[in-house]
Amino acid sequence: MSKPNSKIYLPILFALLFALGYILGRKSNGLQIDSLFNASKGKHKINRLLDLIDREYVDEVNTDSIVDVTVNGILEKLDPHSVYIPKSQLAQVTESMEGNFVGIGINFYMYKDTLTVLQPILNGPSYRAGIQAGDRILVANNKQLFNKKLTNEQLFTILKGEMDTKVNLLVYRKAEKRKFNVTISRAKIPVKSVEIALMLQPKKGYIKVNRFAETTYSEFHQALVQLKQQGMTEVIVDLRGNGGGYLEMAVAMADEFLKKDELIVKTKNRAKHEERSLATEKGIFESGKISVLVDENSASASEIFAGAIQDNDRGSIIGRRTFGKGLVQKEMKLDDGSAVRLTVARYYTPSGRSIQKPYSDKNYFNEFEKRSVTGELYQKDSIKVVDSLRYKTKKGRIVYGGGGIIPDVFVPLSASHDEEGLALLLQTDFINYFAFEKVDAKRMYFKKFTQPTLKKEIYENPLYFKQFQGYVTQNGFSFTLVKHKTEVLDYLYAAFTKQLFGDKAYYQIVLPKDKMIKKVL
């Protein structure tokens, strides 16, 4: 019979007590520790059971794994957004929300089982050390990185590390057919929230925000300032696919567009305490036109921003109904290096509506499939509204709560599955990988192109279209591209442009072809 392990038992007790969420405050208030030890009978029962298993169970048991299962089971009974984050995953989650990580600064993918650099991050450690697109990293600190079938997580573990620590690399430069050694000092690498900011037309700007992290507002404000300096009087804020993040960042962004004392959002906790976030006089775009692009994957902080703009009649919401998450989470670090995100409040848009959809549905997160079946993704009339959840905007327009933000201007997906599948294919990294491999095979040849001569090359040389059709087929897709040849060539040109001239040039080609952008323009 094994003896109780007190080193395991104490963290278990703390983990369970924290996971139960007994007395949690807002992020700014911290924890109220003094009530944690007023344990109920239910908590004593869990603790006694774990102690019994630890002392008496016939086989050796990883007690930490039991705690993980127990904590997950407790949180699953609450709501879909109260979650447990194991220690093994917390660092990656934290990096995404902090807006930076420490590493060598490359975008890469495994091409034929070899770590291949797509691009070094501008002004990052690898960029400064002379690493180029197409370089193969064969060895890092004496660890072989080729022919190993390593996962991205394994590669991150090798390439990331502590600030200013060194990584010794063996690199093969295919274009020059040579190997060389280089030592790179790890540094902070930004994880950008603002994916791109550019002028689409002389007075119309575009800003794509992909998350609401700690750096989001500062990035967004900088983009807004730069575009205003270029003559922007109308802005498109693209929140499609943005699953949210920090509430405070959404509030700060909305403040740029709303006048002093206009309500942005209000939250209510269990004690019915209400906190209201009001706009200040600091907004730098309080009079210019704004359009907000959303879709079924725009959630949480994205919905706070869109709701503030819509309810104050400040601009137009364009796209499809958003996800429908109206809950606020607080993250609590636990003693063993894991964390709990617990729902501590509900938020309400300025008109007073909660946009949280019911979470009794077991398929809560599978919203795309449900909306596809009901036809909502293809026809605005298929969006179901509840008349009792009717609210009014500042100017008296009718809006509805109970499940996401319904756009002012609806833009459907294509009803043709073939066309929609093709659109997804052309707007993902798949076509970018094809372009990378073609450029990588003849870098010296492609270096001579300007954008106009590249465009002529792609559209007039039938080889590119033919090879891409073969690439699609080889990768298991059954699309016949001939009837979509013009669209395919447009995206091929954009993908090659991205490889040779960067992201901004790429977006300037693809955005004017986007259906939601067309609605605005």
TrEMBL record:
Query: What Gene3D superfamilies would the database entry show?
Result: 2-enoyl-CoA Hydratase, Chain A, domain 1, 2.30.42.10, 3.30.750.44
Give residue ranges for domain PDZ: 90-160
For this UniProt record, the keywords arranged alphabetically read as follows: Hydrolase, Protease, Serine protease
Keyword Hydrolase assigned: yes
Presence of the UniProt keyword Protease in the record: yes
Task: Show the SMART domains listed in the entry.
Answer: PDZ, TSPc
Pfam families linked to this entry? CtpB_N-like, PDZ_2, Peptidase_S41
Q: Which InterPro entries did the record assign?
A: ClpP/crotonase-like_dom_sf, CtpA/B_N, PDZ, PDZ_sf, Peptidase_S41A, Tail-specific_protease
NCBIfam families given in the database record: prc
Name the family: Belongs to the peptidase S41A family.
State what protein this is by name. Answer: S41 family peptidase
